[in-house]
Design a protein that fits this description.
This protein is mostly helical. The protein has seven helices and three strands, in the order H-E-E-H-E-H-H-H-H-H.
């Protein structure tokens, strides 16, 4: 697919000190030829291409320059249509910038980052669940405290009304006294009734 002139002005890649396999191992400056600049514009920077603001140095965007040019050459030789060449150059630059060789993150640091992300993802849900369960938690806690205080108060009242050890002996003694006093009253009443009956019989005889 063709690319406009304005967009294609930034698609050139300049590579310095590339070891070429043609004519011996010599340092040759290579550039991407899929998109070309106007001769009048590039003539001003022909002596020193590093000063050109529209040329990207390959050393700054990827680490292994030779692998980039090898992959580009293999793509050209695979029989692809020439209409994809500018697109390939543009995508290759972006992919090289994204897939640069970087030091691998240690497993411990990666695990810490994973747990941190997991916490950040689960924190809103945990807060929402806590807000939903907070009333029931408070109700259960207050019910437990109230039941404990009521049981303590009942125990204190029972201990004050019934001293331990004397509550069983006192009622037995009282019952015995009452039985004795009631038995004495009954005997006294029987004596008075018997005396009254005797006096009535004597008066009738007389």
């Amino acid at each position: 697919m063709p690319i406009a002139r304005v967009v294609s002005s930034r698609l050139r890649v300049l590579q310095r000190n590339y070891l070429s396999r043609r004519g011996g191992r010599v340092n040759v400056v290579h550039t991407s030829t899929a998109v070309d600049y106007a001769p009048g514009y590039i003539a001003r920077y022909k002596r020193n291409l590093n000063t050109c603001p529209r040329i990207i140095d390959a050393e700054f965007i990827h680490g292994d320059e030779q692998s980039f040019w090898t992959a580009r050459r293999d793509f050209y030789r695979s029989g692809a249509s020439r209409s994809y060449y500018p697109v390939w150059d543009r995508q290759a630059q972006a992919l090289i910038m994204l897939t640069r060789q970087v030091p691998r993150v240690p497993q411990e640091a990666a695990f810490r980052l994973f747990t941190l992300g997991l916490r950040l993802l689960l924190m809103p849900r945990l807060i929402m669940n806590a807000e939903l369960m907070l009333p029931s938690w408070m109700l259960s806690n207050t019910e437990g405290l109230l039941a404990e205080t009521i049981s303590k108060k009942d125990g204190e009242k029972d201990g004050a009304t019934k001293p331990p050890g004397d509550g069983d002996a006192a009622p037995a003694a009282g019952v015995g006294v009452l039985t004795q006093s009631s038995g004495g009253k009954l005997k006294a009443s029987e004596k008075t009734i018997g005396d009254g009956s005797k006096s009535q019989s004597n008066s009738n005889k007389a």
